[in-house]
Design goal:
The complex is a heterotetramer. By secondary structure, chain C is mainly α. Chain C is built from 19 helices and three strands. Chain C has one domain. Helices cover 74% and strands 4% of the residues of chain C. In chain C, strands 1-2-3 form a three-stranded mixed beta sheet. Classes of the chains: A mainly alpha, B mainly alpha, C mainly alpha, D mainly alpha.
Chain lengths: 276, 497, 492, 136
Amino acid sequence: MRALGIIVVILTGAVLLYALGDFPSWADPTSPAHKHVSPAYIEKSLEQTSVPNIVTAVLADYRGYDTMFETTVIFGAGVVCFFLLRTPRKDRARVRRYRHVLTGMTIRVKETRKTPLVLEEFERIDTLWAPHDLIIKTACRILIPFIQLFALYVIAHGHHSPGGGFQGGVILGASLILLAISHDLRTALGRMSERLHAILCPIGVFIYAGTGALCLALGFNFLDYGALARILHVDPVTARSHGILIVEIGVGLAVMATMVWIYSNISSKGKYDEGL
Amino acid sequence: MSQHFPALLVTVPLLSALLISIVGWLYKRLCFPIAVAALSVTAYSSVGLLLSVMHEKEILYRLGGWEPPWGIAYRVDHLSALVLVVVSVVGLLNLIATQKSIQEEFPEKTGAFYTLYVLLITGLLGIVVTGDVFNLYVLLEITALTGYGLIAMGEEHAPLASLNYVYMGTIGACFYLLGIGYLYISTGSLNMADIASILPGLYDSRVVLAAFIICMVGVCLKMAFFPLHTWLPNAYTYAPSAVSSLVAPLMTKVMIYVMLRLMLTVFTPVFTFSRVGLSDSMVWLAVIAIAMGAVLALAARDMKRMLTYVIVAEVGYMVGGAWLGNRAGMTGAILHIANDALMTLCVFLAVGNIVYKVKGYAFKDLQGMFRKMPYTMSGLVAGALSMVGVPPTCGFFSKWYLISGGVQAGQYGFVAALIFSSLINVILFFRIIEIGYYEPFGADHGQGSSRVRTAEAPLTMVIPLLIVAGGLVMMGVYTGDIVAHVIAPVVPPALGN
Amino acid sequence: MDTIVSIRPLVAVLVSICAVPLLILSKRSNIRETWTFAAAVAKFLIVLSMLPAILNGSQIVYTLAEVVPGAAIKFRVDPLGMLFALVASSLWIITSAYSIGYMRGLQEHSQTRYFCFFALALSATIGVAFSANLLTLYLFYEMLSLATYPLVTHHQDEEARASGRKYLTYILGTSIGLLLPAMLISYNLAGTLEFARQGFLAGTCSKGLVAMLLVFFIFGFAKAAVMPFHGWLPAAMVAPTPVSALLHAVAVVKVGVFSIVRVLTGVLGTDLLSSLDLGLVICIAASFTIIVASLIALSQDNLKRLLAFSTIGQLSYIVLGVGLLSPKGMTGGILHMAMHAFGKITLFFCAGAIFVATGKRNISEMVGIGKRMPLTMAAFFIASLSIIGLPPTGGFLSKWYLVLGSLEAHQTVILVVLLTSSLLNAAYFMPIVYRAFFNPPDGNAQDTGIQEAPLFCVVPLTVTALISILLFFYPQPFFRLAQMTVRAITGG
Amino acid sequence: MSNLLSSIVDNYNYLIYIILMMIGLYAMIAKKNLVKKIVGMNVLQTAIILFYVSIGAKKGATIPIIQHGHGEGAHEMGASVIKAAEYINPLPHVLMLTAIVVAVATLGVALALAIKVYDRYQTLEEDEILAQIREK
């Protein structure tokens, strides 16, 4: 195996090095990569889409179709993780552990159909229980809202500054995952149930693809945001910039939901009761 | 409407996949009908596309209304239209045929399953219609990811096989991505037609050569071309039968399509066949692929594994035919994409029915099958004959073109390999058929044979199988027309006539 | 030589395929047999309806689909094909009568399957007879191979399995391994596969290549059982006797030789062969087969195996006749297709009848059987005369023409071969007849008076025996057709 | 040869990506541990991302965000003054956003699979797993 690896690496490396000879020198403004297609983006994007952030413009409009499928990839990954890991109802954990807060003694309760006892002096705990650090808990509880606010800013301000749906979505997701880590998975899922993010994630993609389909329905080509002008009562160019915003929101939703979904599946091996 | 067919083709299944995944949480029973509806629309529009392509030369669709090369564009020509029809039809038939076994295998996750199923089809269709090399990469990953997921839900070693598939598939995809990076750095464009128009000036550039080689390696990995086939047998064997009857016919064939697309459209035929001195070595690799596939299939001890190695051999057919570099060979390769998809579907559906009934696919499970499941077995026989290449099944005619291509190119090794593998196929399939045919009989040849009861699979599984089996013959009989009206325009004049 | 475009050839082929679903669906066996008969008669009538046109020197053409440029799925009825089709379709009627008797007499299992595949095999046979190009011929040739497999292995026991394997190995192995490449090479040489009057390969390739193709073709059609590819025929004798009768005395093996004749005349062309004097090669292979097969036949005790080997020998007569490349020789060869068919099927019927009536397979047990089954053995006698080639039977004519042909081609060696083999034939047939009639049955089997096989068995074999006598006096239309074929080929 | 050397020298970034990529590739092929393979996979993908991004670089250019022109109707006045040379090539960055997302997705799936594999064999060492399979 090792020998094979070395051989493969040497062969591939040889090919790549061989090609290196004819590379245009690095960052040379006259290299074909900079001459052929990209100048048009840089010069036209503002007037065509009124989005100063060219990356966003190209990402969500010129090559919006790529991005749609990119979102679909994320969504697909989420579904795959669920499909692979989520444990079927019959062999889910039947035992719950509770801890009496005052005395610190723990009890095991056989899960039954009717809702288990909920008394405030009892807290539900994981099988491997470590006392939760108060500082971390509080710090996170304070931090998370700001993180989420920032995430929303990143999504909304993607037109004018680095950012956009993916970045914002990831930050949102991260905030929820932080909640899950600092407290435990159940609390996070209490805030946002499995079903909810499992549905949010396709909805996010749906916003994207649906916008495209809407343009199709309005008689334009698929994803041609110019069509939205008719609905939003603005000129086509502004419509494009709005269209991009809508799409970015969709992306944000999808990414956020999927991140949480994947995390909760992987961290709890699909049992959804005890995370990290 | 018809000018939006290309968009509908991909967006309808995509949207319905999303819909399914939502509905899956609310009302499971709706998933299957939605999937069927979506794929029917797809099949309809792909057929419509094929017809309209046959009238006007090729269809260009600008997504987002941007001019290529700045925006992404669909480019549908005869080749892609043909493959589109194959993909959508195979997907639809398999969907209907495997409904029962899905309900049995994933009672709680039907929603997720159908989501992935339709997403997979979406990805394949997208790969076929797109005219942008990077977009192709993204769609490649969609098919790959969904494929990993679906395959991993099979029994015993499926997750491991799927994980290995992840490694190999990712390497393949990365190589492809790198290759188009090299193309971009030397041409500055990502649109296939645009690249093709820029390339002639750059034929001597090492970067382009490297790009070509890297892309080819990547694609060969994905389509399990011989030395890189190691992931395929396990993955397809352990996959749930409903899944293997989807991926086995489609995945490798679509990858072959990608290879042809790269050879003929992106890197122009002139470059592919005269500048890159790889033709002979590729053909010889194909010869080895065919031979090894046949031999390994002989060693297999259960039907699915045997068939997977047959697939490895079939990939060899197509790659070899494509690289022969003459009209007959290319025609054979393209024709075989369609035919092989159909016959692989046929045999895998038959195996699927058997698995559904007897819960096993080892050779011994076939005892007395001809009496137990006569229709399924007749379907299997039809597929087998097509694999062997018996007229008038379509398998014969694609083999015909491939062999005559080999004769014209003077590649007698290739011809010999094809004949060899047909002979091996005879052994392979008649071994199965024998087991099914000779029941453990009493000494008397009297009426003692009614011991085995007929227990045929449900109609929803049998009818699609028989449709496919009939399709094999129809394809065979109409080969002439298909070649004349669909394939002939695709083959570039550079390959002579 | 005008050509009529008509769908009749296709119908003639399809009629028995269309019968198959009816056979499957028919609940009771009588209905099933009725359908079989109906299909057989229909087929025969359709074939017959084309006869007058053919005799007037015109030919009937029908194209189904142009699958490959230069090679369509196309039917053409010409004298040669018509002769073969007549023989096959007429014998199917008789055989289906016989097989009803036989199968019921032995209460064989899964008779429906039997009749279905029988029908399929017949379609394939007619298809071969009427095919207008090599591709179509190959198509039906393969179809026949596969359709006969379930018939050969009807008993589904270990023995059947073994011989089924042998059968497929020989037939499919050669057709894929030799025939397909040969066909494709000639396609790429000539760009067409249409049978032409003097072959389409003339002047397209070197002598070596032609010789190679010739060898590929002759051994590729393993159904013709030219040695060394004859092993499957004795093995296939495990099949029920009607199968052996029709398929291994008539349909399958004759399809083999018919295809060889077609290829020699229509693909390679007799002129090309004689100009490169490759005829000799064929003659040598054929003569070798004739002599060796007859010698082996001498040593057989199982009657059906004996008949099998005798068939192997007789088939090579036909190959030999065409290989002589002389008009009379060819006439003899082609004529022999018909004559031998009627003779040999009678013999098989007799063997079957004996088995049904007495359960005896071996010749040594058949001493004095003539007293129990006089009709059967009489028929056996006549048929063996025809095979040996003595008047007053059809076999005489064909053999006579073969002899003339060998003289015409100044091949005295061949003449010797023919005569020797006739002697050998006599040597392995006559003792059977003699012992059957003139030796007393051995002690333990006491004389039980006349005890024939069921009527369904006896009538057919009597009919065929009579026909083979009749053919001596009225060899029409077969003789005419043979002559027309030869004239068409030699242009004389 | 010399020009090859010089091109390598002023294209050292490409050299780095090649080295990274080779490391990843080697890990994927030679390592026995399934998770190490996954790590190798990510290194491989990251290397390619590096390659693309370094395509985008342009001497004397800044990030592709047009400084002036905010909000509605910016395009009328913004259009004329923009020069392609002033901003780096946005396209590679766009592509790489996609590639990163794909990489993440693949990673997620791969990890999920690894978990399933571990559940089934109680190990992630390839040879141990193969041993288990063999003795069955």
